[in-house]
Structures are given as structure tokens and as C-alpha cells.
Amino acid sequence: MENLVYLDNAATTFPKPECVYNAMDTFARTNGVSLGRGQHILSARASAIADETRELLLNLFHCSNKKVVFTNTATEALNIIIKGINIPNGANVYISPFEHNAVTRTLYYLSQKTDFNLIQLETDKQTLLLNTDKIKLQFERNPPFSVIISHVSNVIGAIAPIEQIFELAKQYNAITIADLCQSAGLIDINISSVNYDYIVFAGHKTLYGPLGVSGFISSFPQKIDPIIIGGTGVESANQSMPDEIPVKYEAGSHNTTAIVGLNASLKWILETGVNTIHQKEQENYEKLCSVFDAYGNIHYYKPANHAGVISCLFDGYSSDEIGQVLSQNNIAVRIGLHCAPYAHKFIGTFPAGTVRFSVSYFNTESEFERLDKVLDYINENS
User: Fold this and answer.
1) Which of 216, 244, 272 is the last residue of a domain?
2) FRET label pair with 149: which of 29, 33, 103, 245, CA 20 to 30 Å apart?
3) pLDDT in tens, 226-255
4) Cα–Cα distance between 123 and 366 in angstroms, integer?
5) Does residue 228 sit in the same domain as residue 283?
6) What span, in angstroms and rounded, lies between the C-alpha atoms of 197 and 255?
7) 183 and 251, same domain (yes or no)
8) DSSP assignment letter at 356
9) For the chain, how are helix, strand and coil distributed in percent, rounded to 5?
């Protein structure tokens, strides 16, 4: 949208690199078919692009020893994994205070059928970071069956030390699940280690791809069942789902156009450089903080180690009221609980929530200047 200042990148990054739009448009006009559903040249091309996209993801995460499963959403991927690991009665399942409802609602659903213990990982109230020393003691007292962590909080941008925590968890043979929706393509991470059982990605967030393609990466140390059953284009006479991965978890027609867009965004990320993208986002984060620091009526949460997500409170106003003013001035942010009520309980903003600002690689100086003018208007009229 023309003249829109877009600061809701934690929901969906926008704009995308130009190559993403071009690739999707060209594919939709010249190819536009589902992969793996025919022997003709169009289907073969679609399959080749999907295979290449899987390889690009493995390259990005330095894990050629693992496999990629595409899903329509990260929520679908988390459901497959969390439901599939078969949490037993009495098990200790650890989560951070910053988990998305895609994790916590799935666990709540399972808790209605299985009596397991849901435990929050120890987190420092001052730094807003997970405390590995205290987590080590937690694991000694109550050994983990599974540990599920969002690498980056979608509420305050806190970066979790997942490598250290998963290493501790593996001392107890725990199943480890990392939600990388807010960090994939932004923070360079090597998941080739056996300490990472499952990692989940969302194509439309920090991977700068389109909506409609997400997934997970794993070496499949556990046998997990699919949650969607149907056609796969292979072994069609067999009424059981094939055991072959990834087709076992990819019933139905793929969103091939979205996969093409992700293919283009991954090439852009690898060419631009993950560290370069991260540095630019951090620069934009600091510019945003500088804007906020000029106003005594704005209070925000800044973890000691963070990505480009900031939650704010405004003196005298609800998040809804601030959101309305910003929207009326063509500034896009997110208000409320951001599908992460546990996080807001942890920072003390439940149930009203916060105003969330989230930057991207593509934010410009003029956008921060426009935001400053609107914040100045709010301050003057308070």
C-alpha cells in the first residue's frame, strides 16, 4: 500500500524482495501446476523447484543430514510434531514463557487426554532471557521428556540460547523442538547436530517468502504419524500412507506457487547473507528505539539479546487506542496478545496486551521519521 509504514513484520514480512514477486508471477503464468502429480514437463519442473527449495533450506541451516517437510503453516507443522511424539502420562514437557498458541494450545488439547506436567523454563525477569544455570537444575530435579522453545519471542524479540538448552536436554534423551518462525533466515544457526530433533520454519516471516508455505526439518529420530491423510501421487494403490519422507506428511496438492516464492527468497537470503540481513534489521531496531526514547510516555521491553521485535505501553492509553491512531495515520503495527498469552503474563501485560512494533530489512529512514511525527502528535495530545 502506498505511503504505508509497515511495522508488523513479526506477523508477516512486507515487502518481499522483488525476486519473490517475479518468480511467483512467472511460475503462475507459465507452469502453475502441482508437483509430483504427473509425468509431463510442467509437473517435472514444479517437482524440481520443490526439490531445489528443500536443498536451499538444508543449506541455510547447515544440515544436509536432515529432511524437509512442507506444510501450509507453521501451526500445522507444530501439530504434526507435538501430537506425533506421543507424550506419555507423567512426562515433563518444558516450554519457554514466550511460546505461541500454536504450541500452548496444542499442548492444552493433549493435556485433556494425557496427564503430563507442563513446566516453564526458568527465565530472568531483568534480562528477559532464559537462565541456563537454573534450567540445568530444573532438568536435574524433573528430567525432561521434551523441550519446546521459540528461538525468538514474537512479543519482545528475546533470543533463546537453544543450542545450550538442547544440549542439556539431550543428557536426558529429551525430544527437542525449536520454533524458528521469528529467526529462520535472520540468525545463522547450524542444526546439523543430533541435539536438534525438529525445527519449524514459516516461509512468510523472516524467510521473506509468501504466505502458504512453511514446514519442519528433522532426521526423524521418532516415528511420528501424519495428521492429514490422503493422496500423495505415489503408492496410490496402498490405502496406508507411504512411509517415505517427506510424502508421508505431505498429503494433498502443494501450494507450488508459494514454494516457488520461497525458493526465490532463499536464494536472495543466501546471496545477500544472513549476517548482513541481521545487521540491517538490528540497525533498524536501534532506530526504532531512538524514536521511542524521545518520549517519556512510551515504555518498551528490550531484552539483553534480541531480534527486531518490540512491545510497548503508552501512558494513559490502551493498546487498542494507540493501534487505532497509528492505523489512521497509515502505520501498521500489531496490538493485543499476539497469540502468546503466556508471554504477556510473564512481562505483566496480560490481558490488555501491548502495541508491538517489528522491523525488517526493508524499513527506511523516512518511515521512522513518519512514525516520529505520529508519536509526537500522540504525546502532544495526551
Assistant:
1) 272
2) 245
3) 998 888 777 777 888 889 899 999 888 899
4) 37
5) no
6) 26
7) yes
8) E
9) 40, 15, 45
CATH number of the domain that 304 lies in?
Answer: 3.90.1150.10
Judgement on whether residues 288 and 264 belong to the same structural domain of the protein: no
Helices (runs of H) and strands (runs of E) counted in the chain: 11, 13
Task: State which amino acid sits at residue 316.
Answer: G
Q: Write the pLDDT tens digit of every residue in 167-186.
A: 999 999 999 999 999 999 99
Range of the domain at 327: 5-16+274-380
DSSP state of 178: E
Strand, coil or helix: 224: coil
* Same domain as 155, residue 267: yes
CB 163 within 8 A of CB 181: no
Which one of 221, 253, 272 terminates a domain? 272
Bridge partners, 67 (sequence order) = 218
> Which residues neighbour 264 within 8 Å (Cβ) at sequence distance 6 or greater?
17, 19, 20, 22, 23, 24, 209
37 and 138 share a domain?
yes
Grid cell 516457488 in the structure block, residue: 260
Q: Are 368 and 287 in contact (CB under 8 A)?
A: yes
User: pTM, whole model, 2 decimals?
Assistant: 0.96
